[in-house]
Design brief:
Layout (H helix, E strand, L loop, with lengths): L2 H7 L2 H10 L9 H12 L2 H9 L4 H12 L4 E2 L1 H11 L7 H11 L4 E4 L5 E4 L2 H16 L11 E3 L4 H15 L2 E2 L8 H10 L25 H12 L3 E3 L4 E4 L3 H6 L2 H15 L7 H11 L5 E2 H8 L11 H15 L3 E5 L5 E5 L1 H8 L9 H8 L4 E2 L4 E5 L7 H7 L1 E5 L2 E5 L2 H9 L4 H11 L6 H14 L7 E5 L3 H9 L7 E4 L4 E5 L3 H11 L7
């Protein structure tokens, strides 16, 4: 909701309280006059900056800042009071309500009724944006911005989303077993890890690992998050007999958009890590605002969020900041981690991070035509039947690649392989050798090696030596009726063979057209 909508939905007493808080000079008996005066001042960036600077109580200013940096659209009464207690820490019972009422009286917050009649608290979108800009400017005064760009940096973008898809694809093609403790067998762990874009090693013997997920003690950090996410969203299931199989939501997840999957992964991570890091939401919001536009020294970011990160059992606060916050945000594609020439670590929010953390439009440097051109880079099909696919272009033809090839590994490229079994799978699903070759020619700019083309055609001919077909037997009492039905234009394409003068076979797809004809002719048309 915008500020004008919040003001219009509030009663005149609320508007009077705001006007009195800032000593506005206007008619206090006219709602329209009050609205105009409040909008004029609250849309003035200088006024907002001065109002924030004028908040002398540091704890109260922190409460305002935390609410403005929060990404939630609406708050319950309990959520507002929890923020007040956490930041202001009222010394007397009932003082939390006093501070909440001050937030309302000064226009930082608006109490409105929802459609169901319940009361919720809103921050106007335009006011939130203005205050965030002011807070971001203020936060940058507290951190050390790098003057140079890093010589190397990590930006994993949507790799975690793609690797989740690779993991689900592996489960669909292999029988995966888990131990009594619930972990995937080590050999299969290594196979899965070798296919992922971001490499991790299976865990060795560790004395303890807990607090950051259901299977955190079984797998390395990134894969533990990936696995727990798949389990929580019912993309995978652990059966009673020790098998790991695809869950009921896997197909729907794979059909959703990459950005949608990335946002869901981020929400799940924030929920999962909230117990060991209670102030995680605030830490992420502070980091996103401070490192929004420029590379910022990681050490100064650590100082900024230090008051909000505590030790968690054997995990010390510095390690939590580095491993559980920065590294995981990098894995989620929301943060880039760089290194300057002198070895100093720097951080910067990625374009995806600005979208998900700050609700900003992504700054796309390339034009749409340039992006499309990049995605359409021809694939490379080698004489050894390996198909090399650029990672950024794989999503566009993901379904075809899954049908035609087997995924071998993911490195700087995705490496797929055309095999006899993958061609058999294609033919079972309705492809022909010619449609397979048409797809390969189109995607490789007509650079299909001759031996690959000949082998695909040879495999098709081998598979056709013995074929199984599902057909429907049509039985007539009169041979003349059978003869008439077979040559009808609607039935002829589905006719397969005669068994006698009164019986013949048609494909299953011809059943419905035949039933419609028989009903029109007055014959019994049920399938026995």
């Amino acid at each position: 909701m915008r500020l004008s909508e919040c003001l219009n939905s509030s009663d005149i007493e609320t508007l009077r309280n705001i006007a009195n808080a800032y000593s506005f000079d206007c008619s206090k008996s006219s709602k329209n006059a009050l609205m105009q005066e409040i909008i004029t001042h609250f849309q003035n960036r200088t006024f907002i900056a001065q109002a924030l600077d004028g908040l002398k109580e540091g704890a109260y200013r922190e409460a305002v800042a935390q609410l403005m940096l929060d990404s939630r659209v609406e708050f319950s009464r309990e959520e507002i009071l929890a923020t007040v207690r956490r930041t202001i820490q009222p010394k007397k019972e009932g003082h939390d309500l006093k501070w909440m009422n001050r937030l309302l009286a000064e226009g930082w917050l608006f109490r409105l009724n929802s459609k169901g009649g319940r009361q919720f608290y809103f921050i106007p979108e335009d006011l939130r944006r203005t205050i965030r800009d002011c807070l971001s400017h203020s936060l940058k005064q507290q951190v050390h911005v790098a003057e140079q760009t890093p010589i190397v940096y990590r930006d994993e973008n949507l790799a975690l989303v793609r690797d989740t898809g690779v993991f689900l694809h592996y489960l669909s093609r292999h029988e995966v077993r888990v131990t009594k403790d619930g972990s995937i067998l080590k050999r299969q762990q290594q196979e899965i890890f070798s296919l992922l874009e971001i490499k991790e090693e299976a865990l060795g013997k560790v004395s303890w690992r807990f607090g950051f997920g259901r299977r955190f003690h079984e797998y390395p950090d990134r894969f533990a998050l990936l696995y727990d996410y798949c389990y929580a969203r019912h993309l995978i299931e652990e059966t009673a007999d020790g098998a790991l199989v695809l869950g009921p939501n896997a197909a729907a997840w794979q059909e959703s958009g990459e950005k949608e999957r990335a946002a869901d992964l981020f929400r799940y991570w924030r929920l999962l890590y909230r117990r060991p890091i209670p102030q995680l939401r605030l830490c992420v919001n502070l980091l996103a605002s401070a490192a929004r536009d420029e590379w910022v020294y990681a050490s100064s970011i650590s100082d900024l969020i230090a008051p909000h990160v505590k030790d968690y059992y054997y995990d010390k606060a510095p390690a939590i900041k580095e491993l559980r916050i920065y590294n995981m945000l990098v894995h989620l594609g929301l943060l880039a981690h760089g290194q300057l020439a002198d070895g100093s670590a720097v951080l910067k929010v990625t374009n995806l991070g600005r979208e998900l953390l700050l609700q900003e439009e992504a700054h796309v440097e390339e034009s749409e035509s340039a992006v499309e051109e990049a995605v359409r880079v021809p694939l490379i099909l080698q004489p050894n039947f390996d198909l090399l696919v650029p990672i950024e272009g794989a999503e566009r033809i993901a379904w075809e690649l899954e049908e035609v090839t087997d995924l071998i590994r993911v490195d700087t490229l995705r490496v797929h392989r055309i095999t006899k079994s993958s061609i058999a799978r294609c033919l079972d699903n309705g492809w022909t050798a010619e449609t397979i070759l048409d797809f390969l020619r189109e995607e490789t700019a007509d650079m299909v090696p001759g031996n690959v083309e000949r082998m695909i055609q040879q495999w098709e001919s081998e598979f056709k030596r013995v074929q199984l077909h599902r057909t429907v037997l049509v039985s007539c009492l009169d041979s003349s009726i059978a003869a008439d039905l077979k040559v009808m234009p609607e039935i002829a394409p589905y006719y397969r063979a005669d068994l006698s003068d009164t019986e013949f076979l048609i494909t299953e797809r011809g059943t419905r057209p035949l039933q419609e004809i028989l009903r029109r002719m007055g014959y019994q048309a049920d399938l026995h």
